[in-house]
Amino acid sequence: MPDTLYIIGNGFDLHHGMQTSYESFKLYLQRKHGLVFDTVEKFLSIDEKWSDFEEALGNLDVDLLEDDASNYLPSYGDDDWSESGHHDYQYELTKNVEALSSELYECFCEWINTVDVPNNPTLLNLKLHARFLTFNYTQTLTELYNIPKSNVLHIHGSIDEPANEIVLGHGWAPEDRTQLTTYIDENTDTRIASGYQVVDEYFSHTYKSTSSVLRKNERFFASLSGLRNIYILGHSMSSVDLEYFRVIASQVKFDTNWYISFYKLEDKISLSQAAIELGLSESNVHFIKMEEIK
């Protein structure tokens, strides 16, 4: 059994000249699917480069969403009220929510399949018969490094799999937020109640269930106890994926060496904090630049 595991993040693909940043997805969406792009920009709290795209899916501005649809919520006694418009408020909410969930997901899968693998990038000196855990959807490892597919686990799916196998979303579990439907009582307008359900379903549909992915790949994680070296290449170790690292850390020996790549100094600071959260021994954590792996 190989004693080395490479954990691959999006920075690995970027290092090889691939246009896989969330900013690239933003530009693609703006160019190809303007209405979906405008909806994201309007209702999600997201930074200019979309670098926190997945986390932003959990930061839906519910107040703005409901306020925007309130034009379709006339009082029952208004002159312009009609029975035919009873579901207009729910329809307007659903239209925007679907743009931010199922339509956005389809656009993402469409985009990632357009990303080209460069022909002659400078390659790293990787141990080809090691084990690889990649968070990327691309086939960079097999196409550029000829890594056997049997050695690579695409933990969030890949472009070679059906689109519905792609795992994308925020890490805010439904049980960790108060469901809007809990506020419904006998005095709640039925249209408002239906709207609450639409919003609650959005958060459920855009949730990336790490626990489900871990259960699905339980045998892989249980087989890591013999590792001596772990290389984390191009992964931010952000909160949305940190649970995977916790499970790995719990499986390997305390004196396992962790080599963590960083791009900028501020990245090193956040990665150091993640290593502390994982309880890694400071003497076994080594920060490296990816280009040093020659």
From TrEMBL:
The record's annotation in Pfam families points to:
AbiH
Highest taxon in the source lineage: Bacteria
**InterPro entries listed in its UniProt record:** AbiH
Please identify the protein, giving its name as recorded.
Bacteriophage abortive infection AbiH
Organism per entry: Vibrio tubiashii ATCC 19109
Query: What lineage, starting at the top, does this entry show?
Result: Bacteria, Pseudomonadati, Pseudomonadota, Gammaproteobacteria, Vibrionales
